[in-house]
Amino acid sequence: MKNNTKKKFESPASLDSISATEKALTLNGFLPETVATGAEALARIKELIPKEVSVMNGSSRTLEEIGFIDYLTNGEHGWNNLHAGILAEKDPAKQMELRKYSVISDFYLGSVHALAETGELVIASASGSQFPHLAFTSPNLILVVGTQKIVPTIADAHKRIAEYVFPLEDERIKNMGYPGSLIGKEIILHKERPMMGRKVHVILVNQKLGF
Fold first, then answer.
1. For the chain, which terminus, N or C, has the lower number of CB atoms within 10 Å?
2. How far apart are CA 59 and CA 207, in angstroms?
3. H-helix segments, 131-193
4. Mean pLDDT throughout 102-124?
């Protein structure tokens, strides 16, 4: 990866850019807020999710880096951790049923790979397993996004994924001993209609998190 590409897509967004992005997200029906650190983002997540609800999460370096995965694993939160239940089930048929059930989790948490200043969230995936939650089935989404992922337009968002995110993810997968990754599918969250009753929280973190 060229150094100028890394610099372009790793640089933190300016305050003006963050402000413009928040305004656009709000106009598009999302619920944005900005915090300074990953620790503050984790504290905000704890405030947003009540006890005794079901929680599902996607694979996310961002969630790992802010300490959410460790907190979720320790079991002291009072939530129904659907991901843990899936991993604990050894019977393939039962595990598949749990995966199907997880699609209607009360809360789904993840991140995005690029966020346009015009208020669109772009996520790439090899399998697309997280897309049902993002598009429709989970009534509450919490997306934690480092501000280095903010780019001017949707076209820039696709470039960020192709030129920056994918090479890093491909390298990570190969280092784990697998053949590599691929961009199988992409989803763009353009707008959220109020009549749907869903809440899509976008927590912008003013530091570099994830790819």
1. N
2. 20
3. 131-132, 154-160, 166-175
4. 97
